[in-house]
Amino acid sequence: MKRVLSMLWTVLALAATSEQLWGQMPGHGEGMMEPSKAPEGFERSTAGLAAAFPTRDIILKDKAVFELTAAPVSKQLSGRTLRMYAYNGSIPGPLLRVKQGSTLTVRFSNRLDLDSSVHWHGVRVENASDGVPGVTQSPVRPGDEYTYRLRFPDAGLFWYHPHLREDVTQELGLYGGILVEPSAKPGQPGGWPAADREVVLFLDDIFLVGNDVAPFYREIVTHTLSGRFGTTFLTNGVTAWGLEVRQGERVRFYLANSANTRTFAVSLEEHPWKLIGSDGGRAAREVLTSSVVLGPSERAIVDVLFQSPGSFRLEHRSPQRTVSLGTVRVLPGSAAAETADFFRPGGDDGIVRQAASLVARAPSQPDYVLDLKVKGAVMGMGGMTMEMERPTPIEWEEDDQMAMMNAMSTNQTLRWIISDRHSGRENMDIPLQVAVGQVRLLRLVNDANSDHPMQHPIHLHGQRFLVVSRDGKAETNPVWKDTVLVPAGSNYDLLVEFDNPGRWLLHCHIPEHMEAGMMAVFEVKGGAS
């Protein structure tokens, strides 16, 4: 049965938005507003700024002290010279290589023109170092410093980024990786399969208009309906990423989605991925697949065996189009002596045992049912409608009509909501309290009847979880996660052992949605009951 969704604003909302923003939206209504009425933006001059450079690997020993500075840089991108932001001068920021079980002290300096912080995404740190202003710390003002004390209990790829105005700062280059080496060696219990080399790739996009990035405003967050889709694709901060390998090499790729909104479907021409892990480490069972789907902030760990020389494109393949993300050039060399084991997927018995232990303690019914929806975005105006049988599970691209409405939407005209069915409360008002050590079952319901149903990458700070069912179907390949992409119209069950005390954010990792309210806090207190 067809649903008719009214996809336009109330007259008052449109008028308010037009007065503040419409004349400033690239490609929409230029000149409709006097310059004196324009909202305040951010500095865009590149005068006197050092040029950004590519990311560098930094190997850090246990108990090391590392200096991290966020500051503006200039960057050449698609024929433009842009003012962007960087950690220690590089985009992405330095790749921190540490060992599982080690600790690290990071002295962060803010040399930006706005408040900041650093969130250590997926790392189960102590609460005071989680980097969330208003929850775990005060904002780090321009010119100030803050010290973070980190620990790395889990192996895998994690990352760091600001937790204030991520819509601006992450889009402009503030993100970097943390590669945690497993304590067990390949072939040992808990060890990972051997690989000839490791490559970390951050997949991103950026919204360019004319000679600059599409504008941001200090007091208003735009593109809150769908989030900010980029027009230019980046791999490790560049538009023409490339890698050379030798025939016969087994390469481990750590893939991370650092885009604001875009979901990536990543493939490598003529080569299957051997998916061996996700956000929080290894999967129970390795899987051969042609494509890996990553929502914003999700990671995937994949191995590739390069058997033949040639050039092969790394691609994003959505239902609408295929986009090149870079090229892998395979140089002639010795073919791999043994290939059968590569195509014979293995697994990790450790995660199987951990999952079984957690499932044995799971409640039979969800402790929390949290609906994901929006208010204020979709109201009748002039009879324009969009007809659909059911929501599209993933909004891969923007069409022209949606792009116009998205550009007009702000955090003042709509609210994205996490709604608790039991209490009836929303977002930061939901009373989410658990005791340390308790196991809780969370059901995330992405409301198909929402005014604008779309996918949401939901991230839980400070803890890790298992996705135990998707739309009522049991998950058969458990893996530790900190973020899960919930498609429109779907419901996912997450099993969480809350073993890290403190106040921890649960939010959508589309920063425009978070800035429009889509976040809640779990308070993990006391001892287990």
N-to-C CA distance: 47 Å
Which CATH class of the largest domain? Mainly Beta
CATH second-level architecture of the largest domain: Sandwich
Major sheet summary line:
6 strands, mixed
CATH topology of the largest domain: the name is Immunoglobulin-like
Provide the low-confidence segments as ranges: 1-36, 377-387
**What is the mean predicted local confidence, pLDDT?**
90
Rg over CA atoms, rounded to whole Å, is 23 Å
How much of the residues is beta strand, in percent? Answer: 35-45%
- Count of DSSP strands: 35
Number of domains: 3
Under CATH, the homologous superfamily of the largest domain reads Cupredoxins -  blue copper proteins
Question: Would you summarize the structure shown here?
Answer:
The protein is mainly beta and 529 residues long.
What does this structure look like?
The protein starts with a strand and ends with a strand. It is built from 5 helices and 35 strands. It has 3 domains: 57-181, Immunoglobulin-like (Sandwich), CATH 2.60.40; 197-346, Cupredoxins -  blue copper proteins (Immunoglobulin-like); 357-377 and 414-525, Immunoglobulin-like (Sandwich), CATH 2.60.40. The chain has helices spanning 11-20, 166-169, 349-360, 400-408, 511-515; strands at 3-6, 57-59, 64-77, 80-87, 95-99, 103-110, 119-121, 145-151, 156-161, 176-181, 197-206, 208-209, 212-213, 232-235, 242-246, 250-257, 264-268, 273-278, 281-289, 292-294, 299-305, 310-317, 322-331, 368-375, 385-388, 415-420, 432-435, 438-446, 456-460, 465-470, 473-474, 483-486, 491-498, 502-508, 519-525.
